[in-house]
Amino acid sequence: MEPIIIVLIILVVLVFVALIKTIQVIPQASAAIVERFGRYTRTLNAGLNIVVPFIDTIRNRIDLREQVVPFPPQPVITQDNLVVNIDTVIYYQVTDARAATYEVASYIQAIEQLTVTTLRNIIGGMDLERTLTSREEINAALRGVLDEATGKWGIRVNRVELKAIEPPTSIQDSMEKQMRADRDKRAAILQAEGVRQSQILTAEGEKQSAILRAEGESKAAALRAEGEAQAIRTVFESIHAGDPDQKLLSYQYLQMLPKIAEGDANKLWIVPSEIGDALKGLGGAIGNIAPSAGGGSTPKTSTTKREAPPID
Questions:
Q1: Do 167 and 175 touch, CB atoms closer than 8 A?
Q2: What is the pLDDT of residue 33?
Q3: What is the dihedral of CA 65, 66, 72, 73, to 10 degrees?
Q4: Residue 70 forms beta bridges with which residues?
Q5: Which residues contact 90 (CB under 8 A, 6 or more apart)?
Q6: How many other CB atoms are there within 10 angstroms of residue 86's CB atom?
Q7: pTM value?
Q8: What's the DSSP call for residue 153?
Q9: Beta-carbon contacts of residue 110 (< 8 Å; ≥ 6 apart)
Q10: pLDDT tens for each residue of 31-45
């Protein structure tokens, strides 16, 4: 009985192993290559798949999702004979699992080497300044070459990015000095523009202030002149209304003499021609007052009354 039990156990194990090899579960976004006696048979897609145990074998399982592969820095010589180190990142996706398995031995290594050679060809036709400022152009050119070359491998290159472009240390120092000089130049220009604008605004302000001050002084002078004219007209109207006689005018002339003599700088006096007539009139008035004060009688003298010239 024991040999029969052993045989049954062996048969159960073989059946179990056969079931395991028969049923193949492929995850989503994956594919598997099936070979029969070493020859490609079919490609298993995601889900539950049935294969012939011990005859069909799974050669390769491939991830169909988009992959990101960073490549180490590669030294590249520019057109002006400068060595720069460039880091690249490739975004690719397997579109044909069969071609990716049988058309190339290692598509990752093939993409890396193709990237290096293509990058050297592109950068070799550019100088350093253009290399540093033409990343989009380099990315587009590199992607076009890689996508065309990897199409027969069942690979689609979706995107190529240059992570870093590192020129030599001496060139970096020179570039930093140049950028610092450019920044200092721009700062000096901006400062000069600010000073110029400030001076222009100050001059404009002073101009407007002078104009307003002159207008104010002009209006004030006009108002003063108008006031003085009004005062003169009022005085003249009062004089004409009062009808002054010769004696009053003579008295007013005498009151103005001390004011004419005021000041140390007055070396020359200008005496009006009417001052003689004023003094005669004033003398006659005093002569008439004196006899009256002494109580005597003074014979009357005939005087001719002179009218004061009209004041316009």
A1: yes
A2: 92
A3: 180
A4: 89
A5: 68, 69, 70, 71, 111, 115, 146, 157, 159, 160
A6: 21
A7: 0.53
A8: G
A9: 104, 150, 153
A10: 999 998 889 999 999
